[in-house]
Amino acid sequence: MTFVSRLRIAAALTAAALLAACSFGSSEPISTGAAPGLGLGIYKVGKPYQVDGVWYYPRVDLSYDETGIASWYGEAFHGKYTANGEVFDLNGLTAAHHTLPMPSIVEVTNLETGRSIQLRVNDRGPFAHGRIIDVSRRAAQLLGFEQKGTAKVHVRVLTAETLQAQAIARRNGEEAPGPVELVQAAPRTPVDSENLKPLPGSLASANQGASRPVQLAAAPPAPAQMAEPQLTEKVTVGPARPNAQIYIQAGAFAQAGNAQRVKQRIDGLGSVQITSVRVNGASLFRVRLGPVMSVEEADRLLAKVLATGFSDARIVVD
Question: Residue 51 phi/psi, 5° resolution?
Answer without folding.
Answer: -135, 125
